[in-house]
Amino acid sequence: MKALVYTGPDEVQLQDYPDPQPAPGEVIIRLRASGICGSDMHAYHGHDPRRRPGLVMGHELAGEICHSESPLFTEGQKVTADPLITCGHCFYCRTGHDNLCVNRGMVGMTRPGAYAEYMSIPASSIIVLPERMSFVTGALAEPAATVVHALNISMPRMLRPVQEQKVLVIGGGAIGMLMALLLASYGVRHVHLAESNPLRRAAVAEHTGVKVIDPAAQPPAESAYQYVVDAVGREQTRNMAIHALCPGGVLMHIGLQDWGTKMDMRKITLSEMVVLGTYTYTFTDLQATVAALDEGMFGDLSWVESRPLDEGPQAFRKLAAGKISAAKIVLLP
After folding, report:
1. pLDDT tens digits, residue range 143-172?
2. Residue 131: which H helix or E strand, with range?
3. How many Å apart are CA 215 and CA 237, to the nearest integer?
4. CA distances to 70, 95, 190, 296, 327 from 305, in Å
5. Do 22 and 76 contact (CB within 8 A), yes or no?
6. What's the angle, vertex CA 293, arms to CA 291 and CA 297, rounded to 5?
7. Is the dihedral of CA 159, 257, 150, 167 positive or negative?
8. What does the pLDDT look like over 117-143, one tens digit per residue?
């Protein structure tokens, strides 16, 4: 089969790759859509030691089952999948926090991923998609579930209902875009999104209706927001988030571009800010997100661009250079 293989920093190549072999309890998916994630871009630049050269990346996926070693699924079913391969028996799995499984693996990291024509995965990861849902929409379930999970764990810590919050989303990539759309569907009226790339700013303004700002020209005011989402995760954006957050506010940290950061812990402490990290989503979050996408909670998704798998190397290069306005590129194997 053909697969897009990470061969070293700033390089992916379309190569012939061994077909996946069926294993007990697994299914093989004929992949139809595979999204490019920010974490894949991070690895593309050589910044993720967990993803090593020779790996087929990709974990945002949709396709159809072409072989099943499980009695629960049959050939031809339209599906997406939870890319987290969890053990099912540790404390976190048993208490419904399977995204924190201590024994987890991940598609596109510890096993071959979705930038390929075919992929194998345990049947326990499979979620059947509605027949009317497109494969591209199905592939968006994974990043959309990330914001569903993030907002779900944020809301109990807010001093007032989310609809009353003044919100700042930092970053106009897919996560920032999806968070803005989700907040709008919840009836949040005051949402600003900060994005430094002018192409992205224009796309966000066109497709979300939120107020978009250039943080270099119009830095967020101090203590102006009750809920801040950092969907970038650089030292600059983390400090921006703390600066913009008001006393008692909630900072949801999703982006992971930088590792260590100096932060104003004194302001966090004296202002009783709540700083939350989030990692992916639970299986039930992913199921709920498929339903939300089917119900149109994230809008028409016209901001998503699709490209053939063989254009993957070019797409990675253009994304790295900031020359693509679309917040999400989906490859079509």
Report:
1. 999 999 999 999 999 999 999 999 999 999
2. none
3. 10
4. 34, 38, 28, 18, 8
5. no
6. 105
7. positive
8. 999 999 999 999 999 999 999 999 999
